[in-house]
Design goal:
This protein is an all-alpha fold. The protein is built from 12 helices and no strands.
């Protein structure tokens, strides 16, 4: 942790996140949204059911693949919060090995207190959240043209095989296959868009 000490004092704000995210909606989420909207049309249902459906929508969004963006956006809403500071520290130092102790020290908390507070706020442990941040950043790097080794190194994995294994566990495909698949989908979308003109 000593090598990180100077950086603790200068946590830089994370880059701004987009105001809007677009994602495919699964049927359970669509159903919850429909039930919520229908409940708003009736005074008795609005009072009794609307809040339940709203909680269901939030639950389904937090269970979705894009939950990391939702959690990041929520963190940006609470400036000065220890969780926000911890997430900013994770982003700044993700290329280094980090432990719960490092994260807790960065926000001046005990390990157990920090771990409990972090999990209560995000729904996952600090190290699971860090892994999600690393995987999402690796994905961005790969789609931006980095090779697998560069992406792994940039997000703090010293073992390429461990990175590939974690990436496959997180995204369901190896980094190379996943990246090629998304590039193919993107190319097909561009072809479709140009053929419609």
């Amino acid at each position: 942790m000593n090598r990180l000490a100077p950086n603790i004092l200068r946590i830089e704000p994370a880059p701004p996140t987009p105001d809007v995210y677009v994602m495919a909606l699964d049927q359970p989420l669509v159903g919850a949204v429909q039930r919520f909207l229908l409940a708003l049309e009736s005074e008795p249902e609005r009072g009794v059911l609307a809040s339940t459906y709203l909680r269901e929508i939030a639950y389904r969004l937090l269970r979705s693949e894009q939950r990391i963006w939702l959690l990041e956006s929520a963190a940006h809403e609470n400036h000065g919060n220890v969780i926000t500071a911890a997430i900013a520290f994770m982003k700044q130092e993700m290329h280094h090995p980090l432990s719960v102790r490092d994260l807790a020290e960065a926000v001046s908390m005990s390990e157990s207190g920090f771990a409990h507070m972090f999990k209560a706020a995000t729904g996952v442990s600090p190290l699971q959240f860090l892994k999600q941040l690393r995987m999402e950043q690796a994905r961005r790097l790969l789609l931006g043209g980095s090779n697998v080794s560069e992406a792994a190194d940039s997000v703090g994995y010293s073992s390429l095989s461990h990175f590939i294994s974690e990436f496959k566990r997180y995204f369901g495909k190896s980094p190379k296959v996943y990246t090629q698949r998304l590039r193919d989908v993107h190319a097909a979308a561009l072809r479709d868009a140009s053929s419609m003109e």
